[in-house]
Amino acid sequence: MGRMGGRDVIVRGIQGAVSGSGFSSIFSGAGLEMEDRVVLGTREKMPVTEALLRGLVGPRQDPYVTDEETWNPIAEERLEAFFDKVKSGQIQKPIAVFDADGTLWRNDVGEGFARWLIENGKLKGDSGDGDIYKQYEELVARDPGEGFAFLVTAMRGIAETDLTQWAKEYFSSFEQNVFPKQKELVHRLREAGVDVWIVSASNRWIVEAGASRFGISPDHVIGLQTEVQDGILTDKIIPPIIHGPGKVEAIRKWIGDRVDFVSGNSLSDYDMLSFSSGLSLVINPRNEGPEEQNLTQLAKKHDWVIQRWP
User: Fold this and answer.
1) Is-contact 276 259, C-beta < 8 A?
2) pLDDT tens for residues 70-81?
3) Extended strands (E) in the chain
4) Rounded CA gap, 45 and 62, in Å?
5) Contact assessment for residue 163 and residue 233, using Cβ atoms and an 8 Å cutoff
6) Distance (Å, rounded) from C-alpha 210 to C-alpha 183?
7) Is the pLDDT confidence value at 32 over 60?
8) Interior CA angle at 249 toward 248 and 250, to 5°?
9) What digits encode the pLDDT tens for the residues 79-136?
10) How far apart are alpha carbons 44 and 82 in whole angstroms?
């Protein structure tokens, strides 16, 4: 496109507000010139000066960032393409798998529930001073899988009916952390006939409480759990440990050898995201560290969809 009269600059996402000491420095940082025009996703055009003032473009642009009520245009386009394949029958008996913590909602609901149980003196043998959680933190720092297993076995001796009720009570206060677009996506997938599952390292009972908000039944929740004898939790873990490769092992054990859609948010979901035969959606991946530990760079390498919500 020629420079006469300026160029059209396509904006693919909502950018952060712009601040600076002057338009010249802002334009330079954003790669823009005074005569340029901004083309929004709706194809609406406006002078670049107006776009800068409205915070639609700026020197630190991330094409994956939107507010929590929207998808970025790249993610939206890829999701629509997936739904088109489902509707056209290109994908037979489609299956979708979601991680829970950091993927369906902010923060770790399993950790939050454990702290709540400790604070309320509901863990058998707990002195109430938080020692169990301190042990968990020390273990998870050395070996996440071992730490996750410890936190579940700490619930030994609790009646399953009590734990189920407490989980519902706790999630009522946690529900504000749910990502609206993920909740909407799950409902849309289910309406399209996709079999939707949750696979999480958090304990099964608290994830089931959260799953109910998404219309997902308990039999489609795979979380860390112990054996239950005579209605009481034991300290015997039901394998596998649902972390890293263990998530794929759990999928093969309880779901099958193929999934068409996977959504996760961390390196512990990497194997599961790689297992998808169709679309992989990564929520708020970290963009730091060496490439083999940088989920943003790994997602780009594998052509996975990235979505960031601030």
Assistant:
1) yes
2) 999 999 999 999
3) 8-10, 37-39, 45-47, 95-98, 195-203, 221-224, 226-229, 232-237, 261-264, 279-283, 305-307
4) 20
5) yes
6) 11
7) no
8) 90
9) 999 999 999 999 999 999 999 999 999 999 999 999 999 999 898 654 444 589 999 9
10) 27
**Coil, helix or strand for 86?**
helix
What's 73-108+175-307's CATH class? alpha beta
Backbone angles phi, psi at 133, to 5 degrees: -70, -35
Using DSSP's 3-state secondary structure scheme, residue 101 falls into strand
Which part of the chain is CATH 3.40.50.1000? Answer: 73-108+175-307
Strands 279-283 and 261-264: parallel
Q: Radius of gyration (Cα) for the chain, nearest Å?
A: 23
Tokens for 45, please give them. Answer: 């055009």
Query: Coil, helix or strand for 34?
Result: coil
Q: Could you give the C-alpha distances from 57 to 47, 63, 66, 75, 307, in angstroms and in order? A: 11, 10, 13, 19, 18
pLDDT band for position 27 (cuts 50, 70, 90): very low
Separation of alpha carbons 143 and 264, rounded Å: 20
